[in-house]
Amino acid sequence: MKNINNRSTEYDIDDIFLERHSPRAMSGQAVSRNEIMTLLDAAHWAPSASNVQPWRFLYAIKGTEDFNLFLSFLTERNQLWCKNAGALIIELSKKTNNEKMVPTHSFDAGSAWENLALQGSKMNLVIHGMAGYNLEPLVKELNISDEYKVEVMIAMGKPGKREDLPEELQEREKPSLRKDLKEIVFEGKEGSKQLK
Known about the structure:
Layout: E1 2-4, E2 7-9, H1 16-19, H2 33-44, E3 55-61, H3 65-73, H4 76-82, E4 87-94, E5 96-97, E6 100-101, H5 105-122, E7 126-130, H6 135-142, E8 148-157, H7 167-170, H8 188-192
Antiparallel strand pairs: 1-2, 3-4, 4-8, 5-6, 7-8
């Protein structure tokens, strides 16, 4: 039995899976282009069906007009804490390759996101993926073609203080738990009857 961050597992998985979580408290301190590129380098080594590598990333560094633009795409609730990010990243996936649909474009982009998140955890950075953004203005302002799907927006930054978050978010500033394996893992055809 292993317990890290009040998360426990009965199997001998690597500590990083229990250490990684998605905090929101960031200091507002600048992040370097090198730190951003290190995250994106890790992301680009993700597994990819037929090695198509459909992931694409746009980033904006705090203190730039682009950062303010990217921040404006987020919901008001996410803007409250993302204003302290060092950078904002938008991950997209390219839906086609050589004019053929890539059925795994989102799945592969998810693998790239996970690599980015784990690398950020190793670098002691806050990495938080969000679905709380306004798609229509994002697509319009950045002139994103139908060939791409916006997958997620990501806030990255240096760790900050929990008490600097809006009060309603302070309580949530801890690693979340996961369902028991028995709720999500089933064996064979018989197991398919247990899917919920």
